[in-house]
Amino acid sequence: MTGTTTRPAEAAVRPVAASATRRAGLLALRGAAVLGKRLLMLLVLLAVVFAAIELLPGDAASATSERGEGAAGLAARRHLLGLDRPVWERFADWITALPTGGLGTSARGERVTDLLAAPLPNTVLLGGTAFVLTVLAALAVGLGASARPRGIVDRVVDLTSTAGFALPEFVVSIGLLLVLSLWTGWLPAATVTGADGAPATWSMLVMPVLALTVPQTGWNTRIVRAALADQAATPHVEAARLDGLSTGRILLRHALPGAWPAIATGIATSTGMLLGGTVVVETLFNYPGIGTVLAGAVADRDTPVIAAVVACAAALITVVLLLADLVRARTLGARS
Amino acid sequence: MDWSRRQVLWAGGGMGAAALLTACGGGDRARSSGSGGKPRKGGTLRIGALGRSSAITRDPHGTQGNESDYLVIALVHDTLTAPGLKDNTVGRLASSWKPSKDLTTWRFTVAKGATFHDGTPVTADDVVWSLRRLRNTPAGAARLPGIKADHITAEGKDTVVLVSDFANAELPLLTRLSTFVLKKNTPDKDIAEAPGTGPFRLDWYRGGNARLLRNAHWHGGPVHLDAIEVTMFESPQAMANALMSGQIDVASNAGAVAARTAAARKDIQVVRRPNDMAMPLVMRTSGGPFADPGVRAAMKLIVDRKAMVRQVLSGYGTVANDILGTGDPDYATSIPQRHRDLARARKLLKDAGFDFSRTYELVTTEDVPGLAESATLFASQAREAGIKVKVVKQESGTFYQKTWLKGDFYTNYWGTNDSVVFFASKTMTTGSGQNEADWSDEAFDAAYHKVLATPGPKARTAALHDLQQIEYDRSGYLLWGMADGIDLAAPAVHGLPQLPGYGRVQLENVWLAR
């Protein structure tokens, strides 16, 4: 028997009735709806950020003041920063400038776009490398474990992936630092940047990337493994097995395609976790990214900076989630 | 991220007589830090300094929240005067200064041969413009107290005249901190790259990190290093790791925790700069439970100073005697050290009718390492005397809005350990802008004015002694100890600054044995 009649999943992927143009139109519509929903969510999220910072004790003027600064000077700076205006007004100003790329001015008078210009690419490099690595590693390990369910490899992976995910980034970081740098001297302990603002050598990226990758791989491996297990129970995979196809072929050609939507969604959620992890990892390795900018901005109650970082992170996450949606849509097509 | 914004500037300041202590280090530690060996020319010093990318500033007269920025600025731009080892104040861009008889008018002479990095000579006009710019910043009044902007004028090419609103024998001391001199009429947009007059000139600056090159024509004498590379670190631990893995040569102001980690390493110098930071407990004197001088005296007898230094500062500090300005050459060592005496404290409290049934709040922040711990430890020590003290932790911004200058009982810290008079004028005389304990004492004010108006060094020392005795007896400050400033350095580094506070950024004498 050949595959054509025994692959119902594939049949569902390509519904005979839907013409290509109609499908593209549907996809675009669906995309626009999703994008709209995400934008609305971003708007709400940013409003919450503004409100949350308002609720924190202290404000940007007092947080960035000098000890010798008098009450009059403080009031003047408060006025300059617009802190004497209601929070919704400041939010409206900030959000209406956003579409034109204006991110406002920090409490210390810097343009927020300037503040983020150097650290943002660094964080994207760090997070992006970690993302690619964790996807590759999770797929490899997840497929490896699925080859023989409940075999030794599977059980070891089950345990270590849970452990890996349970390890916070700072624990992994400190372990890496001790072993790879302070004891063996193999890797530089901290990131030092050159005149261009980027890490001086690539070796400075290794530990920060690993510190992010290890916990995420724990998480993603479990998702890959679970998605493949679900697929293993489907009739077409069962049939392929009965056909006597090789394990590798069954996994790659029959189980994996159906598992993609679940895997894509799971991996997409790790974008957020990766970005969250960078705040910790960047500080520990002195990596010049937006995580450190964010931490400082929170201490400063610097709303425009915090909101800008949140907006950048949200934009990144949105793009990845949209990609995941696209994978789902492509795979499931009309079924969803 | 246990490092905070206010630490830098105010964990900064000042001076004091200090001996360099190297707690541990490699075989050639004896030669380190100016104690011997012939300085070698050349090499690049890689130095780490704390900073936060959100707080980066390039303005020499702005709020330097980052130690790294302050370091870069202080190497590129000269201040008029600088902290010294034997004399509290030594010349930097000013070679000399002279007061009028009544000590209100001071004439500073610009050092001969002082030029900007682009070769143009420094004139009095440049200095006047810079000082006025400094004075006109939000904190300007606190930085140059008693000197109005239009009372800063030039006299000829090389004399700058400062007229104070009152007699002030310590005026040159005030010009040690942030009187960075730039060229007259430098536009704000060019400030970051503006040429300075300092021992190093800027090669590049990016995101808190910088490379500086030797200024071969520096008016202050030969500079040994070819270049200095400054790397900004967000956390002291990352900075210590970078030092231990050989990525940097010096970890500036790394703190006690990093020092403890490094102490196990034989190949790292732990450079202790005593008298670096005061962490007093402040008691409100104008009202509330501590208004009675007897109660304040009792609190000063309750604290176990040695235990505080040992536990709060990990031993990296010294016991103090409730007088601020411990690094001052005129600090009164003859006043007997207060020790713990619970029996006498109880008697004083009983005489004052102190309410033992109440719980007293001690407000603190986590602005600098050890601060909150000092409050907690004091609370447990007070319990042994029968006083219930509850520690309340406040977020920094809230603290400065709600508690500082207003609270009954709180912790505070000062890195500007300049001089006894510096603290008196800023924090203790009646009506002074930062009178933290709201203290007003006629005898103290009189002693203060006598000190300021006394030109002769001998008579002045005597007057200073009286002032310190009153502060010791009655002020609202319980100063239990002084934290050391701690730098970590690789064995090859020599000639590191020995002074506390702002003294630490003077790297022109540093040289490398490699």
The CATH topology of the largest domain in chain A is: MetI-like fold
Shape, per Cα inertia axes of chain B: globular
CATH class of the largest domain in chain B: Alpha Beta
The greatest interface here is: A-B, 52 and 51 residues
Shape descriptor of chain A: globular
Task: Write structural notes for this entry.
The complex is a heterodimer of chains A (about 325) and B (about 525). Chain A has helices spanning about 10-15, 20-55, 60-65, 70-80, 85-95, 110-115, 120-145, 150-165, 170-185, 205-230, 235-240, 245-285, 290-300, 305-330. By secondary structure, chain A is mainly α. Chain A folds into two domains: about 25-100, no CATH class; about 110-335, MetI-like fold (Orthogonal Bundle). In chain A, α7 (about 120-145) crosses α10 (about 205-230), α8 crosses α10 and α13 crosses α14. Chain A is globular, with a radius of gyration of 24 Å. With about 525 residues, chain B is of the alpha+beta class. Chain B folds into three domains: about 40-75 and about 200-270 and about 490-514, D-Maltodextrin-Binding Protein, domain 2 (3-Layer(aba) Sandwich); about 80-185, Dipeptide-binding Protein, Domain 1 (Dipeptide-binding Protein, domain 1, Alpha-Beta Complex), CATH 3.90.76; about 275-485, Dipeptide-binding Protein, domain 3 (Roll). Chain B has 15 helices and 22 strands. In chain B, strands 1, 2, 9, 10, 11, 12, 13, 15 and 20 form a nine-stranded mixed sheet that branches. In chain B, α8 (about 295-300) runs antiparallel to α10 (about 340-350), α13 crosses α14 (about 440-450) and α14 packs antiparallel against α15. The model of chain B is unreliable at about 1-35 (pLDDT under 50). Chains A and B meet through α4, α9, α12 and α13 of A and α1, α4, β9, β11 and α6 of B.
